[in-house]
Amino acid sequence: MKPKLLLNLVLLVVLATLAGVAFFEPGKEEAKPVHLTELDVDAINRFELTNPETLVFEKHDAHWWLASPIQAPANDIRIQQLLNIAKAESQAHYPVKPEDLTKYGLDKPQAVLKLGQLTLLFGGLEPIDMLRYVQIGETLHLVSDDFSHHLLAKSTDYVDKKLLPEDSKIKELLMPGLTAKLGDKGQWSLEPPGNAAAMSELANTWQSARAIEVKRHEGQPQGDSIHIVLTDGKSLDFVIIQREPDILLARPDWKLQYMVSAESGKRLLSLQNPTAEADEGQEEEESESTPAAKNADESKGKAKEKDSGEDVDTDSD
């Protein structure tokens, strides 16, 4: 190998090595993202949200509840999303002066989240990138605004929309025109007598039913009553305050009303027998496809053709 070519190869290797060193910068640590807080949100058992309602949430038996301004089970998933705001990544942060709070919308925050001893104040939006101003202590943060719908939600928006507690099972159901009790051997007894399979379907429908909307209901509701006893001994009552177009069920003890779609409400308020309906449909379909039915149709067709032919001959004469 010629000395000049060898020198060029050596220089090329050195340049590649230097380029690699410059690119990877050994010893330099990659900047870690800064979060609003370093709280362990899973360890929180109580917190408050003001927006302008003051909502108080408490955890009982691994599930979240609204303690104020209403008392009802809360949607665990939505509560987790609300708590996760405390872990949002800060795009920028710097000290904030009291005289600057007004221009950031922090003199009258849109929402205040109190997590133990830590308070997060949520102001307006930065006009260029539409980032949300968040104040924690004397520090101002800018974060992506993808959580406002949680911060500004009403208390009823946080109520769990399930009509019955998660994983509950019905033991007794008393509703207009029906009294049903589950026996020790898992068999339903009905008054008036009815289809036990249909009753099982009705119980399953109640156990999985969800409202499409929850609102407050003040005063004593008027309407037919529904009384439910669960296998754990707990009981609950609903009042049917509207049947059309959608079903409205009031929970007097929680001062809430649950709106259920018309189709779902129909299945909740009466015994359905989908098996019988399916059997009827199948019988009709089978009767249409049997050889006898086909032969009957063919005979009718021939008779029509014959009659038609006779009419033509008569006219021609």
Mean pLDDT: 84
Q: How many strands, what sense, and barrel or not for the largest sheet?
A: 9 strands, antiparallel
Secondary structure category = alpha+beta
Please state the CA-atom Rg, rounded to the nearest Å: 35 Å
Beta-sheet strand percentage? 25-35%
Order of helices and strands: HEEEEHEEEEEHEEEHEEEEEHHH
Number of domains: 2
Termini gap:
117 Å
Number of helices: 7
Low-pLDDT runs of 5+ residues are 276-294, 299-317
**Oligomer designation:** single chain
The share of residues in helices is: 25-40%
Number of strands: 17
Shape: elongated
Strands of the widest sheet, in order across it, are: 4-3-2-1-6-7-8-9-5
Overall description:
This protein is α+β, with helices and mostly antiparallel strands and 317 residues long. It folds into two domains: 41-158, no CATH class; 170-274, no CATH class. The protein contains seven helices and 17 strands. The longest helix has 26 residues, at 291-316. It is elongated, with a radius of gyration of 35 Å.
Entry keywords:
alpha+beta, 317 residues, elongated, eight-stranded antiparallel β-sheet, 17 strands
Write the layout of secondary structure elements.
Layout: H1 3-24, E1 46-50, E2 54-60, E3 63-68, E4 72-73, H2 76-83, E5 90-95, E6 111-115, E7 118-125, E8 131-136, E9 139-144, H3 148-151, E10 170-175, E11 178-182, E12 188-191, H4 196-208, E13 213-216, E14 224-230, E15 235-242, E16 247-251, E17 256-260, H5 262-268, H6 274-289, H7 291-316
Quick summary:
The protein is of the alpha+beta class and 317 residues long. The protein has helices spanning 3-24, 76-83, 148-151, 196-208, 262-268, 274-289, 291-316, and strands at 46-50, 54-60, 63-68, 72-73, 90-95, 111-115, 118-125, 131-136, 139-144, 170-175, 178-182, 188-191, 213-216, 224-230, 235-242, 247-251, 256-260.
